[in-house]
């Protein structure tokens, strides 16, 4: 491969106005100067997290990979709803999603397996698909992990040495982590409460 690369470079470099005897002595290209499409990058990140969330639920709940799953978006922003509509075909083919429905703000979601994407909750209704006891165990395991992360962050923030010696940006990052962990814990507790509710 290096020989082929060198041969291509020898042919292309003069046409591109690049001087030098060999590609081996050329500086590595700097990508920092290239234009980036920030909205496209954000959309790809959203799609990736969405599909990972579906796959996480599918894997942890032992749902067959080929089975298309209905997905409900709770606490979705207008931007989330727009993306879900725009990329429906991609979600169906790559994520094996049967349908995507945005839950109204005042509507009560059915008992569902949950994955979090920022503030939005990705819900897969459990009726006929998911074992409720297994989902309760999964959420409880996730809650214990987040609680352990929160406890570690609280210990740091309660340590005078850390607060006095760490850079302000590091302390602020830990405070933000505390807020994020508390938010996730609240959502997990609400979901566990729903699973425990009769009917």
Could you characterize the architecture of this molecule?
The chain has 199 residues and is α+β, with helices and mostly antiparallel strands. 58% of the residues lie in helices and 12% in strands. The chain has 7 helices and 4 strands; from the N terminus they run H-H-E-H-H-E-E-E-H-H-H. It has helices at 2-16, 38-60, 78-86, 88-95, 132-157, 160-165, 168-196; strands at residues 69-74, 97-102, 112-117, 120-125. It has a 4-stranded mixed β-sheet with strand order 2-1-4-3, with helices on both faces. Helix 5 (132-157) runs antiparallel to helix 7 (168-196).
- Assess the beta-strand content as a share of residues: 5-15%
Query: pLDDT under 50 segments (min length 5)?
Result: none
**How are strands sequenced across the largest beta sheet?**
2-1-4-3
Averaged pLDDT, please? 88
Largest sheet: 4 strands, mixed
Specify the structural class.
alpha+beta
* Bulk shape: extended
Q: From the alpha carbons, calculate the radius of gyration and give it in angstroms.
A: 24 Å
Q: H/E element string?
A: HHEHHEEEHHH
Which percent range fits the helix content? 55-70%
Number of strands: 4
Straight-line distance between termini = 63 Å
Q: Number of helical segments?
A: 7
């Amino acid at each position: 491969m290096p020989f082929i690369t060198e041969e291509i470079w020898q042919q292309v470099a003069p046409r591109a106005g690049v001087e030098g005897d060999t590609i081996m002595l050329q500086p590595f290209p700097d990508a920092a100067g290239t234009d980036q499409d920030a909205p496209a990058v954000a959309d790809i990140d959203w799609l990736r997290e969405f599909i990972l969330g579906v796959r996480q639920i599918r894997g942890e709940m032992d749902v067959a990979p080929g089975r298309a799953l209905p997905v409900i978006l709770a606490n979705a922003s207008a931007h989330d709803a727009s993306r879900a509509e725009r990329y429906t075909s991609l979600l169906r083919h790559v994520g094996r999603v049967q349908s995507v429905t945005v839950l109204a703000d005042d509507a009560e979601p059915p008992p569902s397996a949950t994955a979090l994407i920022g503030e939005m909750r990705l819900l897969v209704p459990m009726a006929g698909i998911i074992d409720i006891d297994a989902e309760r165990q999964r959420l409880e395991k996730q809650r214990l992990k987040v609680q352990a992360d929160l406890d570690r962050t609280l210990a740091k923030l309660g340590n005078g040495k850390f607060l006095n010696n760490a850079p302000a940006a590091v302390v602020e990052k830990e405070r933000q982590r505390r807020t994020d962990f508390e938010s996730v814990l609240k959502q997990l507790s609400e979901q566990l409460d729903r699973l425990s509710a009769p009917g």
